[in-house]
Amino acid sequence: MGCCGRNRSAPQIKRTEGSIPSRIMHTPQTPSAQYFEYVGKTGLTAFGPITGRRYRFAYAGMQLPVDERDAASLMGVPNLRKTKPPTTPNGG
User: Fold this and answer.
1) Residues whose CB falls within 8 Å of the CB of residue 79, separated by 6 or more in sequence, listed in order
2) Judging by beta carbons within 10 Å of its beta carbon (0-12, 13-18, 19+), is residue 61 exposed, middle or buried?
């Protein structure tokens, strides 16, 4: 008849101070923004499928930063064009 393990001793784990492995610190990279401009006639609301964010373009010519994870999807939205970040008055 097969053994059901009743006479088997539990494995012994010997731990000493400092034997617990240290955790690897991982700092997630902050996603960078890509800018989109609305070139339609009215307003447009687009939803980012990855982040779930709502991007509201209220008027023609409006530019918004879009999370880079959502950018590929928004490139397929009619009347949205990828653009350069707007420049600030001090040239930054």
Assistant:
1) 38, 39, 40, 44
2) exposed
In 3D, which of 2, 54, 68 has the Cα closest to residue 82? 68
What is residue 8's DSSP assignment?
P
Residues 38/57, Cβ–Cβ less than 8 Å? yes
- Per residue in 34-90, pLDDT tens? 999 999 999 999 999 999 999 999 999 999 999 999 999 999 999 999 999 887 776
**pTM here?**
0.62
| H or E stretch at 70 | helix 68-74
- pLDDT of 17 reads 62
**CA pair distance 55, 79, nearest whole angstrom:** 13
